[in-house]
Amino acid sequence: MNATIRHALLAKLPSQARTVVRVTGDDALRFLQGLLTADVGRLTPGTSTPAALLTVKGKIVSEVWVLAIDEQEPWLVLPAEIAEEVVAKLDGHIIMDDVELETLTEHACAIAWRDDEAALTVAELGALPEGVRAFDTGHPLPGVLLVGPTAGLAALAGLGEPADHERFTAARVSHARPAWGFELGPDRFPPEVGFVDAVSYDKGCYLGQEPLSRIHNRGQVNRVMVRVSLSARPEGLAPIALTFDEREVGQLTSPAAKQGLAIVRRAHAKPGAELRAGSITVTVQSAPLGDDPGRSDRNQTATVALGGRR
């Protein structure tokens, strides 16, 4: 039996509304390559990559999805709640560059995925509503990002089953994918929040690259993302404090039924470690997910690949 295909309009999910920004000009790719953590020069048309805009200290300012419209025109997808601020920061870095930023105010985003480990691909979707573009992606879930006019995205009724926040979160937990407003947020290093696959360590310099390089070569972050099981469904909204011996050691960031994602101190990121979320027992199921594995000659605890299937 084929796994169910699901889709969700991101604006209907908590903290997932997105703003789409078109980047044009002869220097567009070079400009983004010098600011964002991902290697955008490797993108081919119809694909996307997660990235981050960082402070000079290597802390996250914003999650960014980079979409390759063609070989010279990237689009950016930003968290809607901070998009105006992020566009202003990007604009402030345009000095002598031939770069223009245009917010596509009529555009929104959706995501489609399959309820199994196999990623849904653009080639499987067939005809899409007018104006809607599709991009193969691994983030925020392995599947397809759909970007286009809001009216077009609302006409995706034939694309499998609509999904709510609970379904979206359960899929993220299964694939160990962090999300903005839950694991991802300002003032965190990408390896702390399971977002190291948004970071290139070999493309050259970019804003905030030096601190991440030091972590990669010589250090470790103190907090990491793990998958956890829950003895009961927690009440209240995430994040929920996690404690060990009545001392806070992390946060449950994405609960879904009796599983979830959490950010915990590295000392507790070991399968079988038991923490508390009030009266609920929270058991760590994985080693660090999406953490920086470091150089091969650096002695550190093994890091689990995103999705936990390595």
TrEMBL record:
Single GO BP term: iron-sulfur cluster assembly
Region described as Disordered: spans on this chain: 285-310
Domain GCVT N-terminal stretches: 21-112
An MF annotation (GO) of this entry: methyltransferase activity
Alphabetical UniProt keywords: Methyltransferase, Transferase, Transit peptide
Domain (CAF17 C-terminal) ranges: 234-285
Protein name: Glycine cleavage system aminomethyltransferase T
Organismal lineage: Bacteria, Pseudomonadati, Myxococcota, Polyangia, Nannocystales
